[in-house]
Amino acid sequence: MKHAYIPRTTTYNLNPGEELNDLRMSDEVRPLYEHVKKFIRETVDPMSVEFMRLGESKKDRWSFTPEQLAVLQKAKDKAKEEGLWNFFLPDAETGEGLKNLDYAYIAVELAKNPMASETMNCSAPDTGNMEVLERVGTKAQKEKWLKPLLAGEIRSAYAMTEPNVASSDAKNISTTAKLVGDEWVINGEKYYISGAGDPRCKIMIVMVKTNPDAPPSKQQSQILVPIDTPGVEILGPMHVFGHDHAPRGHMHLRFNNCRVPKENMLLGEGRGFEISQVRLGPGRIHHCMRTIGKAEKALDLMVQRGLTREAFGKKIAHLGGNMQIIAQARCEIEAMRLMVLKAAKAMDVLGNKEARIWVSMVKAMVPERTCKIIDQAIQMHGATGISHWSPLGEMYQDVRHLRFADGPDEVHWMVVGRHELSMP
Amino acid sequence: MKHAYIPRTTTYNLNPGEELNDLRMSDEVRPLYEHVKKFIRETVDPMSVEFMRLGESKKDRWSFTPEQLAVLQKAKDKAKEEGLWNFFLPDAETGEGLKNLDYAYIAVELAKNPMASETMNCSAPDTGNMEVLERVGTKAQKEKWLKPLLAGEIRSAYAMTEPNVASSDAKNISTTAKLVGDEWVINGEKYYISGAGDPRCKIMIVMVKTNPDAPPSKQQSQILVPIDTPGVEILGPMHVFGHDHAPRGHMHLRFNNCRVPKENMLLGEGRGFEISQVRLGPGRIHHCMRTIGKAEKALDLMVQRGLTREAFGKKIAHLGGNMQIIAQARCEIEAMRLMVLKAAKAMDVLGNKEARIWVSMVKAMVPERTCKIIDQAIQMHGATGISHWSPLGEMYQDVRHLRFADGPDEVHWMVVGRHELSMP
Amino acid sequence: MKHAYIPRTTTYNLNPGEELNDLRMSDEVRPLYEHVKKFIRETVDPMSVEFMRLGESKKDRWSFTPEQLAVLQKAKDKAKEEGLWNFFLPDAETGEGLKNLDYAYIAVELAKNPMASETMNCSAPDTGNMEVLERVGTKAQKEKWLKPLLAGEIRSAYAMTEPNVASSDAKNISTTAKLVGDEWVINGEKYYISGAGDPRCKIMIVMVKTNPDAPPSKQQSQILVPIDTPGVEILGPMHVFGHDHAPRGHMHLRFNNCRVPKENMLLGEGRGFEISQVRLGPGRIHHCMRTIGKAEKALDLMVQRGLTREAFGKKIAHLGGNMQIIAQARCEIEAMRLMVLKAAKAMDVLGNKEARIWVSMVKAMVPERTCKIIDQAIQMHGATGISHWSPLGEMYQDVRHLRFADGPDEVHWMVVGRHELSMP
Amino acid sequence: MKHAYIPRTTTYNLNPGEELNDLRMSDEVRPLYEHVKKFIRETVDPMSVEFMRLGESKKDRWSFTPEQLAVLQKAKDKAKEEGLWNFFLPDAETGEGLKNLDYAYIAVELAKNPMASETMNCSAPDTGNMEVLERVGTKAQKEKWLKPLLAGEIRSAYAMTEPNVASSDAKNISTTAKLVGDEWVINGEKYYISGAGDPRCKIMIVMVKTNPDAPPSKQQSQILVPIDTPGVEILGPMHVFGHDHAPRGHMHLRFNNCRVPKENMLLGEGRGFEISQVRLGPGRIHHCMRTIGKAEKALDLMVQRGLTREAFGKKIAHLGGNMQIIAQARCEIEAMRLMVLKAAKAMDVLGNKEARIWVSMVKAMVPERTCKIIDQAIQMHGATGISHWSPLGEMYQDVRHLRFADGPDEVHWMVVGRHELSMP
Predict the structure, then answer these.
(1) In angstroms, rounded to a whole number, what is the distance separating the alpha carbons of residues C273 and D288?
(2) Secondary structure (3-state) at A24
(3) In chain D, which residues have their Cβ closer than 8 Å to the Cβ of B320?
(4) Distance, CA of C348 to CA of C327 (rounded, Å)
(5) Which of C167, B323, A416 is nearest to D321 (CA)?
(6) Which residues of D touch B1 (CB under 8 A)?
(7) A404 with B382: CB under 8 angstroms?
(8) Where in this chain does the record put each Acyl-CoA oxidase/dehydrogenase middle domain (chains A, B, C, D) (predicted)?
C-alpha cells in the first residue's frame, strides 16, 4: 500500500557541471559594461536633469520643447560617437550579438536612469521592433523603417493588447486585416500602446487576425502601419493608477478601415506567432532585470528611511519586524537576480523555445515579489512613500503594470505548470 | 517538565450572553437607515452625475463652478428639509446621538457614493471637527465656527501629520505654538491635510506642541487656525500615487509666525491628547466601514468581469484559482464586517477607552486586507483594472493611503500586542 | 467606455436589524453553560489527570485498564446525575434542542479538556450517529443502538472516507452494498475511521453505494454495520504525522462480503446524501469551535513563553516581529470566533441548507488559520514547541488533519465560490 | 524636498564577471559525483530495503539487530573499497578538500536515501565532529577519537542546545565546566542531541561555559565527553511531533558532576565560538541541500497524485489553483537551489566569515519554503498525505525541525538585516 515513489526526470536537474550553471558575464563584454556605466554616470545623469528642467515650463504636456530635443540629441550623438549605440542588436550577417546573459547585467545599469536606454538607442519597444525588422524584414522594409530607427531619427510602437477581449489568450485577437486589392484593410481597437503618443513615433507593428479559419496559431499576422495612415485614430492615453505618462503615453487607438500596402506584411500571412517568439523572450528578461533594479532601489530607500527616522525612541529600522522585512527583501532580490540570470543563460544555451519555462518563471515571479518589496518600502516611509516626494509610488505603478504586460502572471504560471505535468 | 498551562483571563472571552454580542442595528434607527438609502438612490446618485458633468469643462482644477455649487446646494437643501442633516452628531444637551454600531451600518451606505456624506453634512473631517467643537468648544468658538459648519456653509480641515518626523509617535510633533502676549504664535509644517485646498475651507484644527517640558502626553494642544490667517502658506497638494485630488487636495502647509488669539485654544493647554480620544475612535470605525463598502464593490467587479470575459475556452472566473480567490474575498469581507460591528458595539458598551483594542484591531486589519482584495480584482481585469475605465485603481490608492492615516498598521498592532502581553 | 457598475444583491447584505446579527447566547441556556464549565473544572479536570496516570503503566496500548474505565464511569454517572448528559440531542417529539449558536459557545468549553465531551456523552462521532438514529432510525434500530449509545454504554464510528478514491467528491464512493436475499452484502475499504479501534465501539454507520445507475445524488446509502460482523477486517490504525492515537485510533477497515440484515438500512436506499445533511452542518461547526479553543490555547502559550524566555537581552515577546505576530493572532481568533457564531446562528435562523455557505466558509477558514497560529507558537518555543513537553505539536497535527476531514478546504471554497458566482 | 537617493555599495553587487557567479561543479569532481550516484542506486538502495526488513521484527526499538549491522557493514566495506569514504573531509596536510559548491551538488544525491550518508561515512553529526577533530584536535585526541570515527567504527554526537534557556543566543549557554584539579567537572542539561541514543555512539562534543566573566564571545568552550562517563544521564528521547526517532533518537541528557580529563578540552578554554565557525557554515549548507532534495520529492509526489486521482470529473492537478501551486513550487525550488549554490560558492571564494550572510539567507529561506511545499503536497493527497502510507508527514516533521536547528529563522534574518543596515 506504500506509495511507489518514482522520481521524474526533469529538465531542471541538468548536468551540474554544464555551461548552464555558469552565470558569469563574458570577459569580452566587460569593457562595454564598464563603458555603459561610465557613460550613464558622466553623460546621461546630468543630461536628464537638464532635460527635466527644460520641460518644467512647457505648455503642451504632449510634446517636447526644441531645447529638450537638442539636449537629448547631443547625448545621443556622443553615445553614437563612443560606439554605445544599438548594442542590443544581433549582427545582421552572423546573427550574433550580445548574449542575453551579458545584456541582462547591462540592463540593470540601464534601468538606473529612465533616459539611459533611449540615449544609446536601446529603448523599448524600439529594440524589439528593430530586432524583428532585422530578422524578418524585406529589403524595402529595412530601408524605409529600420534605417531611421537604427539612426535614432524616429521612434516606434508595438500594438498587441486589445480592450475588448482577454488578449492574454492571443487567439482572442479581434483586430482584423483583410486583403482588398493590393491593400490590407485594418479594423479594430488596441490599447496600452506605449510610446504611440510620442510626437516622434512614426511606425507601428500591429498584431492582426488575417486567417480566422486557420488553426489557432496560424490565424495572426504582424503588419507595419505608419502612424499617420488615414483611419488611425488616437482616442487618448490610458492611465496607470491615474498617470497618463505624457508625452509618451500608453495610447488607446482605433483602426477605421485603415489601408496599408500589401508589402507591409511582416514575414508572411499567418506567421504572427512566429514573430512573437523572436521578440518576447528577450523583452521579458529585460523587463525583469530592470524590475530587479527597482527592487534594489526600494530596499536602499527602505534602509535609508529606517536609519534616519525615529519613533518610540528607536530608529524605525529597529522597530518591530522591520529588520526582518529588510532582510527578507535582500534575500528575495538575490534569489530573483539568480533566477533571471539563469533564464537569460538558458536562452543563450538552449534557445528561446526550450528556455520559455525559465522565462515564464521569472516573468511571473519578479514583478509580483518586487511589488511586495516596494509596498513594504512605502509602508516604512509613511505617507511620504506614496507622495511625489518619493519615487516609490511611481515605481509601484510601473511594476504593478508589468504583472499584466506580455501576459499576466496567471498565464505564465500555466505555462510552467503544464510543462511540469508533462515531464516524464 | 511538562509545560504548566495556565489559561489567561482575557477581555475577549466575555460573558457570551451579554449585550456586546448583539450586533443588530437598533429598531429606532431603522427608519433613518432606510431613508438614507432612499435619499442616496433618488437624490445623490443623479446629482453626482450632474455635478461631474458640469465640472468636465472647467478651467481651474482647484475650484468648483457656480453651476456645480448650485446643484450641490440644492441637494443639501433637500437633505436638510428631509431631516437627513448632521445626524452623526450627538445631542448637545444629553450627549446622546447615533450609536457607533448604528452609524457603522449607515456608513456602508454613505460609502457607496463619494458625494453622499457631504450632501447630508456628514463628511470627514468636518464631522470630527464639529464633534470636537460641540464637546469642548467655548460658546464663542461654537458661535463662530460650529454654527456655519452645522449649517453646511463652510468646510474645515484637521492638521496633525508632519513631513519631517515620524508623527505616528505623536510625541514627535514639532509644530510649535508659543504664547506671546495675547496671541499664540505658530511655526511648523504639516502635510496630507485633506480638504485644505477646497475653496470653501475656512478653519483648521491644528495639533501643536505648547509644553515641551511637560510629561509626553501633556505636551500637545489643539488650536483653531482660520485658513486666511497671515503666515499660513499653502505649499501645494501632496500626491497619492500621482493623484492630487483637486480641488479638495491633501495639502502641504507651512505656518510662518502665524498668530491667532489666545481664545482659539481648544479645551486648554496640554490637553491635545484628550481631544484626540474624542475624535479618533469613531473616525477610524467610519473609515473601516467605508473600506468594507469598497471591498464589496471590488468583489462585485471581480465577479462581473469573471463572468463576462473568456480566455482559453472558459469564463475567467472559472480559470485556475480564480473561483477560490473570489470565495476567499467573500469570507474576508464577512469577517471584516463582523469585526467592525463588534468594535463599534464595544465603543457603545465599553466606551472609547476600553474599546481601543478593538478599534486598533480593525484599523490594522481592514485596510490591509481590502488592499489585497482590490489588487486581486485588478489582476482579474487585466490592464483595464489600473486604467481610468475602472474605479479599482483609485479605490486601491485610497485604501492604501488608509494604511498610514490615523496611525500606520504597525502602531495599531503594537497597541493590540501590548494589551495582549499585559493581560493576567 | 466606463465600467457599468451594477451592485449585486447578496444574501450577505441582509437586513441589519434582523435576528441573524444577534450573536448572544440564549438566556435560558446560560445556567447549562455555567454548569458545564463548573463540571469540567471540578470533576473532569481531576478525573482526566487520574485517568492518564492509571494508563501510564498499561501493557496493551490498544485497551483501557479496568481502573481507568471505573474512574471514567464514575464521572459519567455524576454527569448523568447532574443532568449534564446528551444535552446536544434534539428532543424526540418536538425536534427542538440546543440551538447551534448556544452549543457553539458550550463547544469552546468542551474543547478545553479532551475527556470533557465523553464524560457528558457528547463526543464525536457518537453525537452525529445518535442524532441520525434519533431522526431517521426505525423503532427497532433505536432500541438496539440508540438506547445503549444514549446510556453511554457503547461507542460508535462513522465510515465514509475511502483510501482509493478522492472521496471529497462523494460520488466517487466505491464501497458497495448489494441486496442478496434479505441481506446487504458489503465490499470495500474505508480509512481514517476515528474511534473504530476503541474496544467499546460496537456499531458503525457506513456510507455505501447501492444504486450506481441512479442520478449522482441518489446512488449512496448509509447502513448500520455492527463492528463484530464477520467480514469486517480491521487492517490497522492510520497515523497522523506518525501518531496512531491508540487506543481509539483512526482505523483502516476492509469489508469482505460482509452481510447485514436488510433492516439495517437507514432511512431508505439512495438516501445517503439526505442523511449527510443532518449530520455534517453541526459537526463542522463543532469542529470549528473546538479549533478556536485550540487557537486560544496556542496564543496563551505563545504569550507565556514570550514573557518567560530571554534572548539578546530582551524577553522573546519583545524581539523582532513577535509582538505583531501575537497581535495578529488575537485579531484572527476574534474574527474566526465571530464567523463561527454567525454560521451557527445562520443554521438556527435560515436552516442547514441556506446556511451551508456560512458553514463552508468557516470550515475552510478556521483550521487553516489556526494551523498558522499554532505554527507560530511552535516557532516561539524553539525545539520544545515540537516536543512532547508541549501540547503544541499534537494540536498542530489535530488541526492539520481537520483541513481534510469533512471535505478539504478546496471543496469548501468551491461551494462558496459557486454561490458567489450565481448571485444575481 | 525630493528624496536624495544615494545608492549604497553592497557586497551583493559584485563584479558580474567574477568567479562567484560561476556555479558549475568542478570538472575534477564530476567522476566522484557520478560514482556516488551509481553507488546509491546499485548498493545503498537495495541494502536499505534489506536493513528495514530485518528491523521489522526486532524487540528492542532502541537497538539494531546483528543481522542489520552486518548488512550495513558490508555496504560500508564496499564503499571504502571503492574509495567513497570520508570524502567530505579536507586533506590534513593541505587543508584542501571538496569545495562546498561541489559537495552541495553531491549532498542532493546523498539526501535521496536516508542511509546513503552513513554508508559512505559522511553522516551528520560525525562529519562536523571529524572536521573539528581534524582541524583543532591534539595528536592524542585524534588517535583516540578521530581514528575510529574515520574508520566508521564508532559514532558521535554534538551537544549544544539546552532546554532551559533560549540557546539561539549562545551567550545563554548554562551548562558549566569547572576545572577541579586535573579534571573538568561538567554540570547541566542538553536536549535534542541527535544520535546520542544510537548504541554505537561513543563520544560527544559538548558546548560548555567555562569563563563566565570573560567577554560574551570568549565564555564558551567545547569539550570531548565519552558517553559512558559516569554522571552522563540519558533522560530519554525528545519527540518531534510525536516521533522519537528510535533507535538513534534526539536525546535529553543531564551532566551530573561529570568528570573528564583536562586534555579533553578542544583548542583551548574560551575558544568555543571559534570552533563553531568551523562546523556551522558547511553543516547549514548541507542541511539546505538535503532539504531541497525533499522539496523536489514533495513536488514529484504532488504531480503524481495530481495526475492519478480524479474528482469532479477532472484530474486533481487540473482542479482549481492546483496547477499554479505546482508551478510556483517548481519556481521556488529552482530559486532555492541557485541560492544554496551561490552560498556554497561564496564560502569557497570569500571564506566562511564573509559568506555568513549568504549562509544565513539560505538557512532562513530554504526550510520555511520547503515546509510550505510539503504542506501543499500533503493537502493534494488528502488524509493519505499525513498517514504512514506517504513519506510526506515525516518529511514535514524533519524540515519543520530544521527551522530551529542551528539557529531559528529569526536569528538568521537578524544576521542578514544587521548586515544590510551596516552597509555604507
Answers:
(1) 48
(2) coil
(3) 320-321, 323-324
(4) 32
(5) B323
(6) 163
(7) yes
(8) 157-257
* A114 contact residues in D (CB cutoff 8 A): none
Supply the mean pLDDT for chain A: 90
Asked if C172 lies within 8 A of D400 by C-beta distance, the reply is: no
Size of interface A-C (CB pairs under 8 A): 12
Give B156-186 pLDDT, tens digit per residue: 999 999 998 887 787 889 999 999 999 999 9
Q: Say how far apart CA B220 and CA C7 lie, in whole Å.
A: 45
Q: Distance (Å, rounded) from C-alpha A226 to C-alpha A347?
A: 32
| Other CB atoms within 10 A of residue B34 CB | 12
Indicate the pLDDT class of residue D91, thresholds 50, 70 and 90. low
Q: Half-sphere exposure (CA, 13 Å, Cβ side) for C164?
A: 9
ipTM of the complex: 0.92
Q: What is the pLDDT of residue B56?
A: 81
Distance from CA of A97 to the nearest CA of D (A): 18
Q: C386–D165: do the CB atoms touch at under 8 Å?
A: no
Do the Cβ atoms of A326 and D421 come closer than 8 Å? yes
Mean pLDDT, residues A301-327: 95
pLDDT for the residue B279: 73
The nearest alpha carbon in chain C to D371 belongs to: C375
- Distance separating alpha carbons of residues D187 and B80, to the nearest angstrom: 82
Nearest residue in chain A measured CA to CA from C235: A1
Helices A272-308 & A126-136 angle (0-180, nearest 10): 150
Domains and CATH numbers, chain C: 21-150 (1.10.540.10), 156-266 (2.40.110.10), 273-422 (1.20.140.10)
Report the distance separating Cα A277 and Cα B160, nearest Å.
55
**Residue A9, C-alpha cell as written in the block:** 526526470
The C-alpha cell 562529519 sits at: D127
Weakest mean pLDDT among A240-249, B14-23, C154-163, C247-256: B14-23
Please state the rounded mean pLDDT for residues C190-204: 94
Query: Given an 8 Å threshold on Cβ–Cβ distance, is B390 in contact with C3?
Result: yes
Residue B191 confidence (pLDDT) above 60? yes
Note if the bond before B125 is cis, omega within 30 degrees: yes
Provide the shortest C-alpha distance from residue A414 to chain B (in Å). Answer: 8
Residues of B in contact with D190 (CB under 8 A): none
The rounded mean pLDDT for chain C is: 90
Whether residue A379 and residue B243 make contact (CB cut-off 8 A), yes or no, is: no
Give the minimum alpha-carbon distance from B174 to chain A in angstroms, rounded to a whole number.
13
Q: Which whole number is the average pLDDT over B7-16? A: 60
pTM of the model: 0.94
Considering only the beta carbons, identify the residue of A167, A168, A400 that sits closest to B386: A400
Is the pLDDT score of D404 beyond 50? yes
Residues of chain C in contact with residue D379, where contact means CB-CB under 8 angstroms, are 403-404, 408-410
pLDDT tens across D171-223, in order? 889 999 999 999 999 999 999 999 999 999 999 999 999 999 999 889 999 99
Residues of B in contact with C317 (CB under 8 A): 421
pLDDT tens-place string over residues C278-320: 777 777 888 898 899 899 999 999 999 999 999 988 999 999 9
Contacts of B307 in chain C (CB under 8 A): 421
C335 vs B331: CB contact, 8 Å cut-off?
A: no
Asked whether the beta carbons of residue B389 and residue C24 sit closer than 8 angstroms, the reply is: no
- Which conformational region is residue B201 in: left (phi greater than 0), alpha (psi within -120 to 50 degrees), or beta? beta
In angstroms, rounded to a whole number, what is the distance separating the alpha carbons of residues D130 and D135? Answer: 9
Given a contact cutoff of 8 angstroms between Cβ atoms, the answer to whether B168 and B178 are in contact is no
Task: Return the residue matching grid coordinates 564558551.
Answer: D220
Render pLDDT for C374-398 as a digit per residue (tens, 0 to 9).
999 999 999 999 998 999 999 999 9
Q: Are C12 and B334 in contact (CB under 8 A)?
A: yes
Nearest residue of D to residue C161, measured between CA atoms: D383
